[in-house]
Amino acid sequence: MAMKKLIIIIAVVFIIITAVSIVLMAINNPTKDDFINFTYTKNINSIDEDEDQKGMTVLYADKIKEALDAQTTRTNYFLFSTYKRTVDGKSESRLGFFGDFYIY
């Protein structure tokens, strides 16, 4: 009888942990705007110490983000999303979940 209770407790804990994980993944599924901001920030940080180039990039941030939006396709799977960005025929794919982006 004690073994049966232990199995039930373990099953309930497993179900609760799984449910909480699913809810957290759904809440933290990044949006397309999150991806655009991530890509923009990544590109700004990759610019060397050339302050003129950084200044121009910041000055035209809205235009750059519009271009990133046009180049990006998001597929939402509720718990995570995939992002495909195509520039000059070259594409880059990323997986977004828990608020972060990973190359796949």
Summarize the structure.
The chain has 104 residues and is an alpha+beta fold. It is 59% helix and 23% strand. The chain has a four-stranded antiparallel β-sheet.
Strand order of the largest sheet: 1-2-3-4
N to C succession of SSEs: HHHHEEEE
Count of the domains = 1
- Strand percentage lies at 15-25%
Measured between the Cα atoms of the first and last residue, the distance is: 48 Å
Give short descriptive properties of this protein:
4 helices, alpha+beta, 59% helix, four-stranded antiparallel β-sheet, elongated, 104 residues
Descriptive report:
The chain has 104 residues and is an alpha+beta fold. It contains 4 helices and 4 strands. The protein has one domain. It has a 4-stranded antiparallel beta sheet with strand order 1-2-3-4. α2 (32-46) packs across α4 (61-71). The longest helix has 26 residues, at 2-27. It is elongated and about 75 Å long.
Secondary structure layout plus pairing:
Layout: H1 2-27, H2 32-46, H3 51-59, H4 61-71, E1 72-76, E2 81-87, E3 90-97, E4 100-103
Antiparallel strand pairs: 1-2, 2-3, 3-4
Helix pairs in contact: 2-4
